[in-house]
Amino acid sequence: MAIQYHTIRLGAVRVKEQHKLPAQQFYALKFPETAQDLIKSLVAQRERRYNEPVSIPIASLNAALRAIIPGLIYIDKIWEEFWLYSRGEIPINKLLVILSHWLDTEFPDQNPNRRKNGITVEQRQAVMELLSNNLQWESVTLKMESWKTFPNGTANINENSNSFILLPDIIATELSKPDLKFKFDDKTIQFYRCSPMTRPGAELISWPPESDNKKVKSYYSIVLRLTVKTVPFQPYPQLQCDMITRRWCSLEKTGLLSGGQASSVYIRTQVKWGEEINPYGYTEYFQVAPMVWKGEAKWANNLAKLLYPIISRSDTPDKITPDKILANPVKYLNITDSPNICITYKDGMKTKHEVGKGFPPNNYRQLMEQIALFFKDKWELINYHRLNSTIKPKKSDRLYEFNLPKPDGISWTMDISKIEEYEKEAKRLREAIRNCIGKELTIEIWYIHESTLDALIKAVCYCLGLTTSTENTYNFPDIDLTVTIRPQPIGKLAERLPLSTETEQKPTSEQREDAIKTRMGEIAQAIKDMPPITGKVGVLVELYDENHWKHKWIDPKAAIRLGFAQEKIDRLSQFIAPKHEKVKHEYEKRAKEKGRELNKKERKEINDLQNELVQKAISSVLDILRSLGVQIAPPRIVIPSVTLPDPITYVALWLVSRTGKTSAHGKQQLIPCMVKMRSDSQTIEATFNGLSKWLPYDEALVKLNKLGKSITGDNKQKSSEIKRFIRRMLQSKELRGKDTLLLCDAQNIRRYWKWLQDSEISPEGLVFGAESPQLIPNLRVVRVREDEETPNWYALHDTDKQKVKLFDDLVDLETLATSTSGLFYTESNDRIFLSIGEKHPTMSNISHYSSKSKEPQKNWTHPQIVELTVACIQPGDKPEHWAIVTHQLRQMALQYKSPLSRPIVLHLAAQMADYVLMVDEESSEEET
Q1: Which of 769 and 894 is assigned the larger pLDDT?
Q2: Residue 397: what pLDDT?
Q3: Do 455 and 566 have their domain in common?
């Protein structure tokens, strides 16, 4: 059947062609420089840092202003030309009240921290006198009607930067007007503004919250995130609108995550100061106050203290404490009134939230179409079109794809119709192991629980087409391959690192490094006591999940990985952290205490986790094989009726970048790496700064931590050294003069190689310094961009229609695709392509009308867009051919049919960072 979904619509809008946005009139206010200087002197006195640079603790002030004064449209940095923007003049005396309270809070007479000095009333009054004499609103005009372009044709939003920085906030203010109500399925929702904590742009939060409709409700809000984006060679900017779920803690006695991980607390309040602070009647802001666990729940900044007198209701200000809010979160949600104090739920918190993450396409389309309808006179949605649907090569030309059928959960069986395909794919995998690894492969399983060991043994056997037996060695004489499975209890190696568990005694970088080296030594001794092994070795390691540890720094994961990879041990590792045993133990303990059997819900959750373990175990086996360099077939890509160079060398550039905060020894690390594959070979090789040659991928991984040379110096020196590495590798004998496709990740390296930035990238050639663009013979370059820098999307049927509720009207719109994949283009830009992979297998039952409100407990995932910028190609090349090649490289992985988020060679390059001495970064609290 022919594909009927040839159009995707982005979650982004652009100004209509031939239309200009009108200039915007604002009142703006500067933060006086004299006051800044005086406040910095108070900071230096408070911190006892008299001869060091200091910064003003402005974040709490800005947040308080947002929360208290709805009339403010935007708050910039205090050192910029203007600090505050409003449609009308907010009375200075109202601002001074907040400023005075801020000074009292940040600079008290006696600081509660004994290591800090107090500040006198007279000193604070001196600041207030400066502010009261110098704060003055000015009328300003922000021009948005036009923008220029950079020499490469990309929209230049830097020239009138304030105009475009304010744009998301201006749009957010429009979309949150009190009389504007949106439809979410059949429900009516209202949006309120919110300042994102770290990202640029603006956010909107739906309020009152939605719930899962159970007797004991779990609450969540819909969040719209607005950002201005540019696209290379595109002469206009676009406004991206992403949609995420924000789940609120909804049960009594909520527990924060340990280890100092902050949970964001969103606060909305109404101040009875009259129309003066809100002359246009805008809705209030939600403002963020982080809450952390440090032996007890504490506020992580002073915002809550600043707002206490306002949010306190009938309580006295000092009675609204983190402990009180956690004890009864729903009370403080205060759904039908104001103020609202809402704690963001994060995975791992107790008690578990019953609402899943994400939204189905139907919900997203409904909101985006309403936004477009509201702005229909000025803005329009952006469509991309499927690149010729006949480009997909025949199955016989896609030998690089690996499609191992799934077993049906813990039975490890499958439908009889899949057995032939399964046996074929298992045989191909055995042959690939022999071709890529050699005659001998040992898979060690270091386990905590017998049930996990059992699942991993069965997973190895399943992947290789074996019948599980008591034997640990399997011979395949037809291809001269021996596979050995070697179980080993992990014991104390899985326990916490020998570091303090007290929040107030956070270990130094030297202590962390010593603890990691101690665990590495323990692993070396454990290996020494085991029989020797010949051939390649991959290690599957069961660990406790990250929420098991009180603090991140005691998690042994990084130490174990490095311990197995150290010299003379040379083992690559893959981790698995199943939850079935932990959940089973907790439920059985609870049932025993109450003198009952497990209930239906508990049994189902345990069974679901056991079935999930089957899929995790298989994925872990395939992941370790991929790390060992197993490629199912040479990555030779065929495009019908097109002659590509043969062979093509695929090269990925990746910068291992660890800040002093996230590295184990507290020092910044910058190590540029490259991974190389060829279209006529299954060999995978890698190199890095500090290594003078290419090595097999698995060997490069185990040598990276010891031999990798980190680049140091200021940013200019770092940039110069990184670019020198890139030039040297491109001119090496392995690549010089050979048909090569270089793949780079925009977010990863553009800071140091500015040519990869939207404003600098050029189809005319590479630039490493001040020279003109240089087209290197036989080299093609494709830049990859993903994650939050690419928009959401939905696919539309060519002809069919369906009814959709837009505001109060039922409208005929194109039928929504439940799934689509492929490569998409826009006629206005022949160098930009959007790569979309197959939907996740768990989304197989999605329909045109699936809705979060009908199935709130479900986790909804949607394939993300991977933006491909075909920058440099050779004369006679067509950009779409190299986009197709890059798109197909996402399909080449030893895993299920879901594609990689990056092309395989770039995926492997990114994984090299796991083998550099570091501690795990904190997981993001954002939800999708």
Answers
A1: 769
A2: 60
A3: yes
Q: For residue 442, tell me if it sits in a domain.
A: yes
Q: Are 457 and 581 found together in one domain? A: yes
Question: How far is the C-alpha of 290 from the C-alpha of 298, rounded, in Å?
Answer: 9
Q: Which of 69-83, 165-179, 397-411, 902-916 has the lowest mean pLDDT?
A: 397-411
Cβ-contact 670, 762 below 8 angstroms? no
Both 474 and 612 in a single domain?
yes
Task: Quickly list H helices, 838-911.
Answer: 879-889, 904-911
State whether 564 and 435 are in the same domain: yes
384 located within any domain: no
| 95 part of a folded domain | yes
What secondary structure does DSSP assign to 424-448, as a single string? Answer: HHHHHHHHHHHHHT-SEEEEEEEES
The model's pLDDT over 641-678, given as tens digits with 9 standing for 90+, comes to 899 999 999 999 999 987 655 444 455 789 999 999 99
Domain that holds residue 48: 24-142
> Any idea what the Cα angle at residue 684 is, between residues 682 and 690, rounded to 5°?
165
User: Does 591 lie in the same domain as 506?
Assistant: yes
Stretch 5-15: mean pLDDT: 93
CB 101 within 8 A of CB 306: yes
Residues 430 and 347 in one domain: no
| Residue of higher predicted confidence among 18 and 808 | 808
- What are the CB-based long-range contacts (under 8 Å, 24+) for 402-408? 402/428, 402/429, 402/632, 402/893, 402/894, 402/895, 403/896, 403/897, 404/429, 404/463, 404/618, 404/622, 404/896, 406/615, 406/618, 406/841, 406/896, 407/462, 407/614, 407/618
Q: Which residue, of 82, 114, 142, is where some domain finishes? A: 142
CA distance 191 to 173: 10
Q: Does 324 share its domain with 413?
A: no
Question: Each residue of 101-121: pLDDT tens digit?
Answer: 999 999 999 888 888 999 999
Is residue 783 assigned to a domain? no
The pLDDT of residue 925 is above 70: no
- Number of domains making up the chain: 3
Q: Are residues 458 and 555 in the same domain?
A: yes
Whole-model pTM: value is: 0.91
Cα distance between residue 537 and residue 641, in whole Å:
43
- Distance from C-alpha of 880 to C-alpha of 834, rounded to nearest angstrom: 11
